[in-house]
Q: What sequence folds into this?
């Protein structure tokens, strides 16, 4: 868990970075973000509100539901950024096919962000434009793989592909 001030600064960096790309932004947060405090600076919040639309839910709300609804309602090209892996939402889904469809949707819409090691800037890994499963065309197979086995989160998929062609 990051401290409140660190979260605020990362949000500020993310909004500035995405605003430079002329992306239309909606930031979902909680009402406590509007209070001037050691963690949330009112003047910087106003600056961010000039670059993005904001929706503030109640402080005790489950804001993930707002995130999912806003993303789905905004259309198929909408992307979202969160550090949440949405595991609780997947666990609530009734069957494995629905969970698989949710993971596929998540991989195609979630932009993963991570601060740099020194904390000076943030990096974004874009959402996938393709499904990361074995794909075939005629006599050619494309197989996603990783060099080493490691524990992964649902949005982390192999970025290397093995191309096999039958001769």
A:
């Amino acid at each position: 868990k990051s401290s409140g001030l660190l979260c605020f600064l990362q949000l500020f960096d993310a909004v500035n970075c995405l605003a430079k790309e002329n992306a239309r932004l909606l930031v979902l947060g909680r009402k406590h973000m509007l209070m001037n405090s050691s963690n949330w600076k009112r003047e910087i919040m106003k600056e961010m509100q000039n670059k993005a639309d904001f929706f503030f839910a109640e402080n005790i709300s489950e804001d993930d539901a707002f995130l999912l609804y806003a993303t789905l309602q905004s259309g198929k090209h909408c992307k979202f950024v969160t550090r949440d892996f949405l595991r609780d939402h997947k666990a609530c889904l009734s069957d494995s096919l629905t969970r698989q469809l949710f993971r596929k949707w998540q991989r195609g819409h979630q932009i993963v962000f991570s601060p740099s090691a020194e904390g000076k800037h943030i990096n974004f890994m874009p959402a996938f434009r393709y499904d990361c499963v074995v794909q075939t065309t005629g006599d050619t197979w494309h197989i996603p793989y990783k060099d080493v086995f490691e524990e992964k989160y649902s949005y982390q998929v192999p970025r290397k592909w093995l191309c096999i062609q039958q001769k």
